[in-house]
Amino acid sequence: MSKSINIVGAGFTGLTMGYYLSKAGWKVTIFEKDDTVGGLAGSYKVEGTYLEKFYHHWFTNDVHVIDLIKDLNCEENIIHRPIKNGMYYANNFFKLSSPLDLLKFKPLNFINRIRLGFVVLAVRFIKNWMPLEKITAKNWLIKICGPQGYKVVWEPLLKGKFGRYAEEVSAVWFWNKLKLRGGSRGEKGKEYLSYYKGGFAMLADKMMEEIIKNGGQVLTSSPVIEVTNDYVKTADGNTHPADKTALTVALPIVAKMMKQNVSDDYIQQLLKVRYIGNICLTMELSRSLSDIYWLNVNDPDFPFVGVIEHTNFEPTESYKGRHIVYMSKYLPTDEKLYALTEKEFFEYTLPYIKRMFPDFEENWVLAYHVWKEEYSQPLVTLDYSKVIPDYKTPLPNVVINTMAQIYPEDRGTNYAIREGKRIALKINDNLL
């Protein structure tokens, strides 16, 4: 007799768990509050092609996503392309796609350009990351690349990413980011990134198809409001029994679902992990802003951490000639900016775009969307390993598997897939 499992959340962690457990003979039911699957990689359509609401790619050394695609027999859909990186600083654009670009980076003196390049090499020699848990990213970066390098390059990015929490972020978080990017370079130091033909939604849909083919089901627009040891309850009042339950959503949501059936102490443990939100403007333009894919914004007067021109990576032909640009802002969700309407946020953004790209005209904008995510990024603070909850919960049949538990690596599709598969195998082997 096959065992059954309820999985809450149809992001890539939940879909991966569902895929591998359904292959192993489990009766899988996935519950998703949104009307589409994919989680933070959720998508909508532009001119008939899926586009992620929040910018997405993966690195060429992201082996877990590649292995999953191979398991699905979809290797022909893997795309690798070189990209151009840049920086906007003091009203100027600087390309930073190669070591030579770095040597020409005039905002830093020559010695600090060398020190900045050394950062990427230094992270590769760090094998034991535990001591970094005691150091903030700020102090670690100043030590390696000096006060000038930190002030010009890293401080604006930390503040752009974490806002008022920037100086609390652990060096572990930054170390892993640098290690990952440094391992995705090809010939002559160029950075290569990867994508899935047709968008990440095509990969998510393929996984969902396989789960259904294996006898499972994926229930969208089905928010779960309560989790017990034996069943989950959905917003329509129905209960769904299963032998196991896996929760893959953000920890504050887990806490709400479990609070009636576990101790207050356990709920407070879950809530020790803090999150930061994201608000992202996606524009469909009639022409390009620049030839740079990933433009870090290092001007402290700008509210955006980056301008990502997606169609400098995935060609405009995919969107019938439309140029796709993301303007991303990480922020605590209690800030006024997060509460703006779609139109208000678009109008708030326009002066910054015009200042950065003086030729830009509002009539270039053919369409735009604003997407928000309350739990976009866990705050990886000092001694984060002591804060992360265990996969096991006080309810013997309930496990949690969320992006906040991906450590020392940071959240991302590749690691969501890794953890989804790893926990699925443990559940199947009766180890969880």
List the quaternary state of the chains: single chain
CATH superfamily name of the domain at 4-39 and 62-67 and 197-273 and 381-428?
FAD/NAD(P)-binding domain
**Annotated CATH topology of the domain at 4-39 and 62-67 and 197-273 and 381-428:** FAD/NAD(P)-binding domain
List the strand order in the largest sheet.
8-7-16-17-18-15-19
Please summarize the sheet with the most strands: 7 strands, mixed
* Class by alpha and beta content: alpha/beta
Give the number of helices.
Answer: 11
Terminal CA distance reads 19 Å
The global form is: globular
The Cα radius of gyration reads 22 Å
Report mean pLDDT, rounded to a whole number.
92
Care to count the β-strands? Answer: 20
State the helicity in percent bands.
25-40%
Strand content: 15-25%
Top-tier CATH class of the domain at 4-39 and 62-67 and 197-273 and 381-428? Alpha Beta
